[in-house]
User: Which sequence fits this backbone?
């Protein structure tokens, strides 16, 4: 996702917070182990097994987020994104991003959703609920 996609046509505020550990479930178990000095699983593209790693070594393959480089805790631009998801449905968007600051080791969470965003599942549920309701009205009126 480009910077323009993330920051253009926003119809609500970007929600943000700073956390001492990941809010996203991905990597949360490993983070506890890294901070405790316990071994974590090695990335399969590098090898196999477990190893004790530093924060820099563990996050070496993560990329910076071009739209949100700044840490919300300390202001450093030395951050790496470990979690990003986005959903586009019927022209509405929703996304969330979490970056690790390599200076203060805090996690910057940012999320956004259009006010009228509905996931495909929510949209279909509402549609079918309305159809069933209308069918019941028609059946009651016919009797």
Assistant:
């Amino acid at each position: 996702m480009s910077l323009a996609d993330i920051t253009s046509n926003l119809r609500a505020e970007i929600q943000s917070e700073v956390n001492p550990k990941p809010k996203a479930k991905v990597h949360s178990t490993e983070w506890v182990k890294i901070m405790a000095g316990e071994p974590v699983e090695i990335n399969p593209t590098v090898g196999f097994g477990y190893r004790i790693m530093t924060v820099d070594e563990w996050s070496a393959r993560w990329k910076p987020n071009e739209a949100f480089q700044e840490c919300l805790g300390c202001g450093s631009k030395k951050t790496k994104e470990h979690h990003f998801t986005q959903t586009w449905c019927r022209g509405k968007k929703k996304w969330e991003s979490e970056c690790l600051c390599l200076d203060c080791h805090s996690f910057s969470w940012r999320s956004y959703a259009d006010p009228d965003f509905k996931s495909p599942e929510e949209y279909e549920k509402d549609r079918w609920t309305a159809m069933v309701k209308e069918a019941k009205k028609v059946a009651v009126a016919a009797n």
Observations:
- Residues 68 and 87 are 18 Å apart (CA to CA).
- The helical segments are 3-7, 28-36, 55-58, 120-142.
- Residues 120-142 form the longest helix (23 residues).
- The chain is about 30% helix and 25% strand.
